[in-house]
Design a protein that fits this description.
This protein is of the alpha/beta class. It is built from 10 helices and 13 strands. Helix 1 links the parallel strand 1 and strand 2. The protein starts with a strand and ends with a helix.
Length: 301
C-alpha cells in the first residue's frame, strides 16, 4: 500500500483527491488545520503548512500531492519540513502563461505575469520555479477550469440556478472561449504519473477542446433539463458584475497529456453529474450578486 500525503483534504480538489485515492487502495494522509470535516479513512496530520516543525519528518511518503500551494514560500516550507518522499506533484494553474502569448499555450512557453490573474498567476509561477530548482524530479500540472462534485465556487451553480428559475443568461457581446477538466480526470492523470513516471515533468491538463461561453451555458441548462435564452450585455458593464468568468479566452495544448490519458470525461456528462450533486448540496454554495446586478442594471435598465 502506497502512502500519499495530500495538502488540504477538506475542500473540492484536495477532498476529491483524498476520496479517490482512498477508494483506490492507497494509505492517504492529509495535512490541514482540522477546521473542517475530515474525509473518513484519511489520516490527519493537524498543522498549518506555513508553520510546520517536525510533524512530517517521521513519515516516508511515496508521493506528495500539493494542492494548495500558491506561492514560493508555500512550496519551500513544505519541502523543508518533509522527511523522505518519492514523487512530488504540484497542482499549479494555466494562469502562469502571460495572456500575450500565442494560443494554445504549450508547456515549453515562458511563464510570467498574466494581467487577468494578477498575483495569483505570479505566485504560481514563483512556486513552480522554486520547486523545479529544488526538486527537479517533481511533476507540475497546469489545469484550466476544474469542475465536478465538491466544487464549491459559485460558477456552474449560478447557471444551474438560472436554469431552474427560468432566467435568461446575460453574456458579453464578444463571446469568450473556455476550457475545462473534470476533477476525476485530474485524479486519473495523477495516478498515471505515479505508475508510469514519464520523463516529461510539466503537463498542461484539460479537455482537448475549448468551447464558447454560450455553448457552456447551454450544456449547463441541458444538464438541468432546460433550454437557455440569452441577453447580450453592453460592453459598458464589467463582465464579472453579471457573469461567472473573466472576459478572457484561452486554450491549452494538452497533446502530451492525451498521450497518457486517452479519454477525458465529456463535458455534457460531467455537468450532469455536477448538477445532481448541486441539487443535494445547495447550502454549501456562497452566491455572488450576479442576478441582482442583472435585474437592476441590465434586464430592467
Amino acid at each position: 500500500m502506497k502512502k500519499i500525503l495530500i495538502t488540504g483534504g477538506t475542500v473540492f480538489v484536495s477532498k476529491f483527491l483524498t476520496e479517490y485515492f482512498l477508494a483506490s487502495g492507497y494509505e492517504v494522509f492529509v495535512l490541514n488545520r482540522n477546521t473542517k470535516e475530515q474525509v473518513l479513512g484519511a489520516k490527519l496530520i493537524q498543522a498549518d503548512r506555513h508553520s510546520l516543525t517536525d510533524e512530517l519528518r517521521p513519515h516516508n511518503f511515496d508521493a506528495v500531492i500539493d494542492v494548495n500551494a500558491y506561492t514560493k514560500e508555500d512550496v519551500q516550507t513544505l519541502t523543508d519540513a518533509l522527511g523522505s518522499f518519492g514523487d512530488y506533484i504540484l497542482i499549479s494553474s494555466s494562469a502562469v502563461y502571460p495572456e500575450t502569448l500565442p494560443q494554445p499555450f504549450r508547456e515549453d512557453y515562458p511563464t510570467g505575469h498574466n494581467r487577468i490573474w494578477g498575483d495569483y498567476g505570479t505566485g504560481k509561477c514563483e512556486a513552480e520555479a522554486y520547486l523545479t530548482k529544488h526538486c527537479p524530479q517533481a511533476y507540475i500540472l497546469r489545469p484550466p477550469y476544474l469542475y465536478g462534485p465538491m466544487q464549491n465556487l459559485y460558477r456552474e451553480p449560478f447557471v444551474f440556478e438560472c436554469a431552474l428559475e427560468g432566467r435568461p443568461v446575460v453574456l458579453p457581446k464578444k463571446d469568450i472561449r473556455l476550457q475545462f477538466f473534470h476533477v476525476r480526470d485530474l485524479c486519473r492523470f495523477i495516478e498515471i504519473l505515479l505508475h508510469t513516471h514519464p520523463r516529461q515533468r510539466i503537463f498542461n491538463v484539460g479537455n482537448p477542446l475549448s468551447i464558447t461561453a454560450k455553448e457552456w451555458v447551454t450544456l449547463c441548462y441541458e444538464a438541468a433539463g432546460r433550454s437557455p435564452s440569452f441577453v447580450l450585455a453592453d460592453p459598458s458593464h464589467s463582465v464579472r458584475s453579471y457573469f461567472c468568468f473573466h472576459d478572457y479566452s484561452y486554450e491549452l495544448d494538452v497533446s502530451a497529456q492525451s498521450q497518457l490519458l486517452k479519454k477525458t470525461t465529456p463535458l455534457s456528462e460531467g455537468l450532469k453529474e455536477y448538477f445532481d450533486y448541486f441539487l443535494t448540496h445547495k447550502a454549501e454554495f456562497v452566491s455572488k450578486p450576479y442576478k441582482e446586478y442583472i435585474d437592476k442594471h441590465i434586464t430592467n435598465h
